[in-house]
Amino acid sequence: MEVLEEKEEVEQRAEDLNSLNISDSLQDVETNVPEEEVSVPSDVPGFDWSSIDTSQLPSSYKTNSQKEKKMLQIADHFLQQYIHLCPERKPLFLHPANECGVEKFVSTTVRPTLLPYPELYHWSGCASFVSNYLTMEPLKCPITPPSSLYSPTTILKYQRGNCFDFSVLLCSMLIGAGYDAYCVHGYATLEICTLDQTQDLCPLLRKPQEVPVKKSRKYRVRIPSEPQSKFELQQKAKKNEEAEDVEKKEEEEEAVTEVEKPKRDPLHGLRVHAWVLVLSGKRKVPETFFINPFTGNSHNTTDECFLGIESIWNHRNYWVNIQDCRTGCKDLSFDLSDAVRWEIMLPESNEPLTESPERDMDYMETEEKDMSFEMPLSWVARIEVSHSEFENQYSQGKKVILYEKAKVEKWAPYVNENGLVERLTVYADLDCTEVVEVTEWFRNREDMLDMREMNKQTQLTTDYFSPGHPLLLKAHTYTSLEQVTGHTMEFYHKARADDLWKRVENATEMIEYFVGRDDFLHIRHVEFGERENGMDTAGTRTDVNLRPILQIKESFHRNPEKPADEDVEERIFMITDDSIQLTYHLEDHDTIASKVVYLRAIRRDRKEEEIFLTQDTCVKYQPWSSEKHKNVLHLYTLLWELRKQQKELKHQVRESEAEVLNVLKVREDEEANVKLTVSVYNNAKRERRHEAMVGS
């Protein structure tokens, strides 16, 4: 039988097996599998499953009930009929042994459970938990299913398993959460089976697809196109095609030299894998999809990584795929009620039997006898995950995933003292030696730091904060925490009294951006001179030796309640030149803005400042102004107000400088003494934290 089965397999996959010297029996194939195909990855420590303690397991793990024995008999009879009708197919995965050495039907190993965590109510949360919590173990033989299938409780206890263990646990959680989920026994590519993601783009680097917005125009003028020669167009198209062919050849040559083509897998199409199928319908799932339990990622059913399906099952029934999988899974129908495409083991009472000329009468009689038989309840104990286990999802304290030119590291909360839970490192080369950018994510920090981006090429670091920072920080970009190096700070402007949104500062200037102010101010640009005596304040935190202010420029949005010739758009205070320039907004029909310039109108006596307005000290250009602005008294009063505002602005600039210094000092202290918050609902963490504080 094995010889016949192998011959049929060779006929079906002749194009995949030309480079293989497969022997005449399946046993020879199994024994000749290369060592690297069955060896455990270097980052997965070895584990002896024969040494686990099964003495404390419930009796359901060690014996079979009468209903379970009946189910095993039905499965054996089903398998005999299946082999008789489909001799070219491989044996089904029906009743492997559990951890106690007792054969259990695969459907009874599925234990639907809804765990009490909001994250596990959605399929993505369940898939992420399983892929993070368990350590992947490859199948002993990559082309045959395992001889045993342990309970999900044992797999959770030891936090490791193969693809079948991953799938059964994930399927149990998804069914408990209300999804129409099934375990799948099939075939996949080498990368899927061995959890090799080094050729995949990191999900964190994928940019969302932008949907182009089409603006429909009901009426538009059609401009006639200029006449063109067809011959010239043909010649131009030929030249473009030749140029494109040359470019493609050059790109292909560069790609070959840069990246070695992956070696052809000699076991392509034969590698056994298990994953999860989620059908549309329940939980408002719009479309049927696959879940790879090793990664927790979803895949379309037409994904070329999945090469075929032998069977699927849930906690109620078992189905065998009758469809052709020569083109993979892209043409498969997942209508399980279709008896032509799926052979069901326990016919459901609400489905009429479909006679087929390919079925034997004995088989049909057996189906009729088993119509009233229902799947036994799961022999697995209730699946439980404690709060600490849910928080510390990584069995080795850390998880590392390698992608193409990227590496992702994950930690459980509170493992790192600085609250680091995830890090993405982007490289410039495939060997991952030259770092381009590093992004880190944090949790539970008192300073509300959420994410940090570090560009290794520009040496710029950007910190992002969640709402709640004492200084209302939203983002901070810097090269170091020294003032002279330059900083860009963003704030939660709605929580600030001055509506400041962003401040950009370096050694020579400071620009402040405002949003939603009552006075319509939106930009303030300050220019500084060199410090006196050429001294540098790097490393100091004093207010001495401040930078002299050379110029202050403010820009205002249009105030619709004022006439344009009375609404200032821009005002510039040139401190060193002792002059002030005002530029007013334009009306819709205007082309030139009105301006007023005061040039050295201040003369200082021994007692106080005095203002002298002359034709030389006040220059105005107001082509659209009213009579009010031509009044000298009005210009005199306006200048006095501007002088007061200039003093206030200088004071505000000094306050902004002091605020920058304060932010840098606070951030320096926060980074030197990182404190993590603990939820009031996490009693264990709070007690440990209290003990640590008392002990110190």
TrEMBL record:
<keyword id="KW-0282">Flagellum</keyword>
<keyword id="KW-0744">Spermatogenesis</keyword>
<feature type="compositionally biased region" description="Basic and acidic residues">
    <location>
        <begin position="233"/>
        <end position="249"/>
    </location>
</feature>
<feature type="domain" description="Dynein regulatory complex subunit 7 MORN">
    <location>
        <begin position="396"/>
        <end position="679"/>
    </location>
</feature>
<dbReference type="GO" id="GO:0030154">
    <property type="term" value="P:cell differentiation"/>
</dbReference>
<keyword id="KW-0221">Differentiation</keyword>
<dbReference type="GO" id="GO:0007283">
    <property type="term" value="P:spermatogenesis"/>
</dbReference>
<dbReference type="Pfam" id="PF24667">
    <property type="entry name" value="MORN_DRC7"/>
</dbReference>
<feature type="domain" description="CEP76/DRC7 peptidase-like">
    <location>
        <begin position="272"/>
        <end position="345"/>
    </location>
</feature>
<comment type="similarity">
    <text>Belongs to the DRC7 family.</text>
</comment>
<dbReference type="GO" id="GO:0031514">
    <property type="term" value="C:motile cilium"/>
</dbReference>
<dbReference type="InterPro" id="IPR038765">
    <property type="entry name" value="Papain-like_cys_pep_sf"/>
</dbReference>
<dbReference type="InterPro" id="IPR033551">
    <property type="entry name" value="DRC7/lobo"/>
</dbReference>
<keyword id="KW-0963">Cytoplasm</keyword>
<keyword id="KW-0175">Coiled coil</keyword>
<keyword id="KW-0966">Cell projection</keyword>
<protein>
    <recommendedName>
        <fullName>Dynein regulatory complex subunit 7</fullName>
    </recommendedName>
</protein>
<keyword id="KW-0969">Cilium</keyword>
<feature type="region of interest" description="Disordered">
    <location>
        <begin position="228"/>
        <end position="260"/>
    </location>
</feature>
<keyword id="KW-0206">Cytoskeleton</keyword>
<dbReference type="InterPro" id="IPR056290">
    <property type="entry name" value="CEPT76/DRC7_peptidase-like_dom"/>
</dbReference>
<dbReference type="GO" id="GO:0030317">
    <property type="term" value="P:flagellated sperm motility"/>
</dbReference>
<dbReference type="Pfam" id="PF24656">
    <property type="entry name" value="CEPT76_peptidase"/>
</dbReference>
<dbReference type="InterPro" id="IPR056291">
    <property type="entry name" value="MORN_DRC7"/>
</dbReference>
